Structures are given as C-alpha cells and as structure tokens.
Amino acid sequence: MAHFAEIGPDNIVIRVLVVHNDVTHLDGVEDEQRGIDFLEDLLPDSGTWIQTSYNSNFRHNHAGVGHTWDEASDAFYASQPYGSWLLDDDYLWQPPTPYPDDGPLYDWDEGTTSWVEVE
Predict the structure, then answer these.
(1) What is the pTM of this model?
(2) 25 strand-pairing partners
(3) pLDDT single digits (tens) 48-78
(4) With contact defined as beta carbons under 8 Å apart, do 80 and 68 qualify?
(5) Which portions of the chain are predicted below pLDDT 70?
(6) Would you list the domain boundaries of the chain?
C-alpha cells in the first residue's frame, strides 16, 4: 500500500490517504505518479498529492495531518512542539536539553527549558 499526503496551499498536510498497490504498481514497480493520477481523478478538487513513506524510508518522516511539506528539502515534518526546540537534519524536533536516560519519566517544561520528573 502507498500513502499519499494532500498538501494545502500553505504547505500543510490536509489528509493522508492509502492507495492500493494494484493502482501504484506497474510491472511490479511502484510508480508515484500513478497514485497521484488516481487521486486527482478520484478527487478532482483536491490539492497537491505527494507520496509519503509509512516507514519513513523517504521524505524523512511519514506525513500526518497538520505536518509541513518542505518541497525544497523533499521532507515532511511535524509542527514545532515548543518554541525552544529545533529541527534537526532528519527533520525531527529536538529539545535544547536531551531527554534524561536515568529511568524516571519526564515532561518538558518550556518555562525553564528543562525536563521535569513526573511524580
């Protein structure tokens, strides 16, 4: 199965649909354009369709509703969870302080830009 993200005019993912391999494969080889053509025929008033990888094998991350499509980088990424977090080279948001690996559970506190142990 192939997954396709519909991109709105602001490069935000509106929805993600699954297209059967019978549509996207020709002679056993996946062809993204066949999936795009299928969705454009099925939903003629829809936005732009971009294939996304469920396993994040390409385009960095699997697209989800509300994610951003960065055409220049050929990447999908989630919304920034906190103002202090930065997007890394894999298009994943990283906190300014790494998550502690000492066992307890922690929540992020944006006010102190630190991890706070959950009680």
Answers:
(1) 0.86
(2) 30
(3) 999 999 898 999 999 999 999 999 999 999 9
(4) no
(5) none
(6) 1-79, 80-119
